[in-house]
Amino acid sequence: MVTFQMSMSDAPPPAAPGTATCARCDKPLTDADRVLAVDRAFCRSCYETLTFELQQAMTRMSQDINYPLAALGAALGGAEGALAWWGFTVLTQFGFGLIAVVAGTLAFLVATYLVNMSFVNQVLHERGEGWRVPFPPDSLETLYRVIALNFGVMKLVFLAIVVYEAWVIPRPPKLALAT
Question: Backbone phi, then psi, for 34, in 5-degree steps?
Answer without folding.
Answer: -85, 130
